[in-house]
Amino acid sequence: MRIGLVSGPWIPVPPATYGGTERVVDTLARGFAARGHEVLLAAPTESTCPVPLVPGMRPADYKGMGTSLSELSHVVRAYEGLADVDIIHDHTLAGPLYMHRPGGIPVVTTIHGPLHARAADIYRAIARAGAVIAISRDQASHAPGVPVTRVIHHGMDLAAVPVGTGGGGYLCFVGRSCPDKGLLEAISIAREVGMRLKIAVKMREPEEVRYFRDVVEPMLGSNEDFMGEVDDATKYRLMGEAVAFLNPIQWAEPFGLVMIEALATGTPVVGTAVGAAEEIVEHGRTGFLGATEQLADFIPAAAGLDRAVCRSAVQGRFSAERMVADHLRLYAELIERRPPAGVPHAVPVDQNR
Question: Going edge to edge, which strands form the sheet with 2-6?
Fold first, then answer.
C-alpha cells in the first residue's frame, strides 16, 4: 500500500520529549515501512522519522498549539502532497473535514482526545465520509452516537526500552503539569507510605506553568525530587528503577500511553480506575487500580509483582507490531470497499467496540 500519514503542525515526529500522538505516528510510519509499504508523512520539517516527508511543510509551530489557523494551514499543505496514495490516515482534527482533499482516497482519523459533546459533533461529521478509530473502548463509550469503525489500542516499540530492576527504592510520576494528571495526589501517596517520589513533568503551556508555580511548587519538600521534562532514555531509566509508577489521574483519560511505557520497563502501575486504565492494567498482575484513597495501601503489594509479567503484558497486548497489524487490516478493508471516485459510501462500524 501507499500510505499517507498526517501529523499535527506543532511537534516534530518523533517528539524529542513530550508528544504522545507524534510518538504513535512515528511508530506507525516505521512499522508500515518495515513491512514494505510506501509511507509519505506530512509533519513539521524538523521531523526525523525515517520515511519520506511531504514537501513544502513548515517548521513546528509550537506557539500556535491548538489554534485553528495553524492546523488548517498545515492541513492544506499536507493534502496537496498526498494525491497519489492509496489511503490517508489523518491525526489532526480539521483535516478529515477538508473539502479539497484528493477524491477517491479513503481517509481514516484517530480520536486522540476525550469525546466531549463538541468533539462528538465533529467526529460524527467526519464519520459520514471517513473511518474513525477510537483508542479505547472507554473513550468510545462516552459518545455512543459517534460511529466508531474500529477500536485500536496504542502500541510501542520495545527495542529501545530497557527492563529496570525496580531497585531504586522510590516511586515515580510522569505527566503534564495539570490537576487532571494527579500530581498532588501522587505526592500525598508517596508521603503516606514513606517513600521518595521522583517527578518528571511537561510544563510548557502558560496554564501548566501557572499550575506548577501556584499549586505544585509550594507543596514540594524534601521527599520529592523534581526533574522537569526529560528525554526518553532518562524517562525509561526513571521508570525502570522505581518500585511502582503512580498514575492517580483525576479524569477519564482516553488511553494513557505512559502506563504502557512504565509496564514496558517492568514497573507495575498503581493508579485510579478511571478512563481506559482497566483496559491496560491487570489488577493484581501488572498493577493495582482503585479509588485515590486506596492507592497507598496497594504499594506494598505492587512492590512484590513480577516485573517480567509487566513487560510481557506490553509485548503481548501493546506492541508496535500488534498496533501496526491492526491498522493495516483496517486500511486493506477500506481500500477494498472503496467506491468509484465521487460516489459517497458508508464506513462499517465496529459492533464489538
Answer: 38-42, 2-6, 87-90, 107-111, 131-134, 150-151
